[in-house]
Amino acid sequence: MDYIASEKGDTAENRDPNSVVSNGASKVSSIENKSSVDCDKLNSIAPVDSVPCTSEKPQETELCDIPEQIEFTVIFNKNKHDITFAFDATVLELKAHLERICAVPQSAQKLIIKGMAKDDMTLRKAGVIKGGKVMLVGSKMDDILAVKSAPKEILEEKNSSHSSKEPLCMQKIHQKVLDKGIPPDVMAGLKGVKEPLPPTPLSGMLNKHGGKVRLTFKPEQDQLWIGTKERTEKLAMTSIKSITSEPIKEHEEYHIMGLQLGPTEASRYWIYWVPAQYIEAIKDAVLGVWQFF
User: Could you name the domain of life of the organism this protein comes from (predicted)?
Assistant: First the structure.
């Protein structure tokens, strides 16, 4: 077989009839070798575990301390309100919250939890428990304004009628009971002292028939229980229109107290020998803070 002459001389490449293929493969191989060398150089410069740089900063996780919450029920005028509130918030802060819900001004509110709760107490310290009940006593702003706007003549007439009446203890209807003397098992009375209601019922007192009377306050149910030997009457506190009381002459450590259960004074339920130190607490528990009459 004759070989074709080349200007470059008689090389193995020129003599090989497959020189074009061999030459191409040789060129590809040289390119791959060059790429391999370049990669080795890059690897020798940059660390293997290097991470590409970005302009974005990693997001920082913000930790927020959520105050411990407590769920309980507030009862006001037979209505129940489910409340979720910070367990270590103060009673005053709760009152501000309830003002928006119940329309009762903060200053007109009293919260009964385990007795009367003080404004600076936390809910935890005051005794609020999960699923428990808190009694709200007070008057709505509309009711307060209505009482304030009562005609002056009506107020004067009411005051004059009170002043013209003889003392309760001097009236015959009451003397019949008072003449029996102080009941032997009545609770001790204190003159000129104001105390909160005790955790136990007020006992040893008498009704107009001379029978024994016991008062049990149930703020969580908005009720006052009047117990006698025969039965126990459970009265809604909102059904009691007013409370009248006067010291008993020569025994000022005790009072005569009348609970008005109907629209007129004739509907009063009279109780005798009520310890004087609890009179204001009884009025606050039943009528609330705002008492104008």
Answer: Eukaryota
